[in-house]
Design goal:
The structure holds two protein chains of two kinds. By secondary structure, chain A is mainly alpha-helical. Helices cover about 70% and strands about 0% of the residues of chain A. Chain B folds into two domains: about 55 residues, no CATH class; about 240 residues, Orthogonal Bundle (MetI-like fold). Chain B has a two-stranded antiparallel ribbon with strand order 1-2. In chain B, helix 4 packs across helix 15. Chain B is flat, with a radius of gyration of 26 Å. Classes of the chains: A mainly alpha, B mainly alpha. Chain A: Keywords: Cell membrane, Membrane, Transmembrane, Transmembrane helix, Transport. Chain A: Belongs to the binding-protein-dependent transport system permease family.
Chain lengths: ~270, ~325
């Protein structure tokens, strides 16, 4: 290709920089001291410090921010494992050895996803209150599993459907049993898909606020709930809030970029390849 | 797919062959059952409970005065000015954010579809906003960008005005001045990458031969876009729009964080959260929840029809 001035390329770069600018600014602010973070006009060249991060982890208040992060991690990882345990067999029964009317089953799964979470919030709360599951991570694990299960089933089915029928038939002809077929034929093809599904479920659980806000308190509060404590903040807190936003977003950014290739397929429930 | 009528099948299959066949069917269904049972228990039962509570007179602050309320809660929902305005807000917010991010996403996807230096980097930068935790993104916009005294937006205005020798730059109070637009802008920033990714996938699945043939026949760039690209993208635009609507109709994080539902921005999820979390009127909150579900079902029906057309292609 001839190296010429590329106006479209320049425009794309401009758009990319504009979209990434708030994030870049957030990172820069998190590395400034509080007085430097709150100046007008902004101080671009102020000295960098890790004070905001130290504050976030409780340098002066002694209140560490690890518990909400650990809670978020347990809820997200726990529910992702549970989702996979339920979704992988289900997807198998919807693609490789499909049940009759498998499309109807698929649509049932999807329709539960389209029901607004907020509509079931009250019974979910009252039930937790009754059986003593308020402020308990395991309750969030169950709810996040139900929230992500339809997505995971749809995604996993679209990944398992990519296993060529001919190979499955050949394996059956060679006398391979169910376990061997799963391990030697299905798993290698489906493994990247399973990984991407897990990452996407992890992101959705990590981001969730409404359930966590209503159902947890001091013990089981997750990272997004912790962040809401900044909603009404006043005074010098910008560096700290930016540090908090960066730390809480890091796992999602990492998972998202790791799943980048499959992200579209995941977000469109497997409809777009 | 073929359609079996069960009676016809029973007649045609001999009795003895029926038993292993049935066993085979159940063996096929078995891996599906745990997921199905789990999902019905966790998502359908609460909704049934919501339906029941929605016809009850039940306020947590007045627990002795409970009973059957008939459709009174629904009447309250429909006549309550707050709830009506939050319904309208939900519709406006959803339509505005989905349309704006679709248009922006389409423009960005068209740019990214071209070859240029550093395309991978630009793609990564454009995806990044979608990968910021929603509450963190809302906090970022509220405190770091919109703040009237030290926010980045007004800071840039000060700086730019200073270049031109002025000490009196405009310093608008973004959130109080334009609360709805403030929430919408933050959401458009997060959802444009989502639309862009779906539309980019659509662009890249476009049959290249047709475009080349059209070019040879003398079609210009606009004609190629209008008559080849856009029709091909239609399904992807619909899909992005519908999936985006499903998520944004339910948006809670941005409204809760940026305006705390104030300044006339409360949408239905926020209002329901508030009725039950603060006012403790369980019956009315449930009735409002049922209304949200009905609205969602209307959107979802369209979404399901679209996705089913994609799936049918695969099943046949």
């Amino acid at each position: 290709m001839k190296r010429t001035w590329q106006p479209w390329g320049a425009l794309a770069w401009l758009a990319g920089i504009l979209f990434a600018l708030p994030i870049g600014w957030m990172v820069l602010t998190s590395l400034h001291s509080e007085p430097d973070a709150a100046t007008n006009p902004p101080s671009l060249t102020a000295p960098l410090t890790l004070q905001g991060y130290r504050e976030f982890f409780g340098a002066s208040t002694g209140q560490s921010s690890w518990p909400p992060l650990v809670n978020s991690a347990s809820a997200s990882i726990g529910s992702t494992v549970l989702v996979l345990l339920l979704a992988v067999p289900a997807a198998y029964a919807l693609s490789i050895r499909p049940v009759r009317k498998w499309t109807d089953v698929m649509f049932f799964f999807l329709s539960t996803k389209m029901m607004p979470v907020v509509a079931g919030l009250l019974p979910v709360y009252l039930f937790a209150q009754k059986v003593g599951l308020l402020d308990n991570i395991s309750y969030l694990v169950v709810l996040y599993t139900s929230m992500n299960l339809p997505i995971a089933v749809w995604l996993m089915r679209s990944f398992l459907a990519e296993v060529p029928t001919e190979i499955l038939e050949a394996a059956a002809l060679d006398g391979a049993g169910l376990i061997t077929t799963l391990r030697r034929v299905v798993a290698p093809v489906a493994a990247p898909g399973i990984a991407a599904t897990a990452l996407i479920c992890f992101i959705f659980s990590w981001n969730e606020l409404l359930f966590a806000r209503v159902l947890t308190g001091v013990v089981a509060g997750t990272a997004p709930v912790y962040l809401t404590s900044f909603v009404t903040s006043q005074g010098l807190f910008l560096a700290k809030v930016c540090a908090a936003a960066v730390v809480v977003s890091l796992p999602v950014l990492a998972a998202g970029f790791a799943a980048q290739d499959k992200l579209v397929q995941g977000l469109s429930l497997g409809a777009v390849k | 797919m073929t359609v079996h009528s069960p009676t016809a099948q029973h007649r045609s299959v001999p009795l003895r062959a029926n038993a292993p066949r049935l066993a085979g069917q159940w063996a096929r269904r078995a891996p599906l059952l745990p997921a199905l049972v789990f999902l019905i228990a966790v998502t359908q039962l609460p909704f049934v409970a919501t339906l029941v509570i929605s016809v009850l007179r039940w306020n947590a602050l007045d627990p002795t005065n409970t009973g059957f309320a008939g459709l009174r809660n629904y009447l309250a929902v429909v006549t309550d000015a707050n709830l009506r305005s939050s319904m309208l807000n939900t519709a406006v917010l959803t339509v505005a954010v989905v349309l704006a991010s679709l248009v922006l996403g389409l423009l960005l996807a068209l740019l990214l579809d071209r070859r240029f230096l550093g395309r991978g980097v630009v793609r990564t930068m454009l995806i990044a906003p979608f990968l910021v935790v929603p509450v963190a993104a809302a906090l970022l916009w509220k405190h770091v960008l919109y703040n009237p005294e030290y926010g980045l937006l007004n800071g840039v205005l000060t700086e730019v005005w200073r270049w031109f020798g002025s000490d009196h730059p405009p310093q608008p109070d973004w959130i109080s001045g334009m609360p709805k637009l403030a929430v919408e802008a933050a959401l458009v920033w997060q959802w444009t990458p989502f639309m862009m990714l779906i539309l980019l996938a659509g662009l890249q699945s476009r049959p290249i031969e047709a475009v080349e043939a059209a070019r040879i026949d003398g079609a210009n760039a606009w004609q190629v876009f209008r008559y080849l690209t856009l029709p091909h993208l239609r399904r992807y635009l619909e899909l992005g729009g519908l999936l985006g609507s499903i998520y944004i109709v339910q948006n809670f994080d941005a409204v809760f964080t940026i305006t705390s539902g104030g300044l006339g921005t409360a949408n239905l999820p926020y209002t329901i959260y508030q009725t039950f979390y603060q006012a403790h009127d369980y019956g009315q909150a449930s009735a409002a929840g049922v209304v949200v579900v009905v609205v969602s079902i209307v959107i979802a029906t369209f979404a399901l029809r679209l996705v089913s057309s994609l799936l049918r292609n695969e099943a046949s």
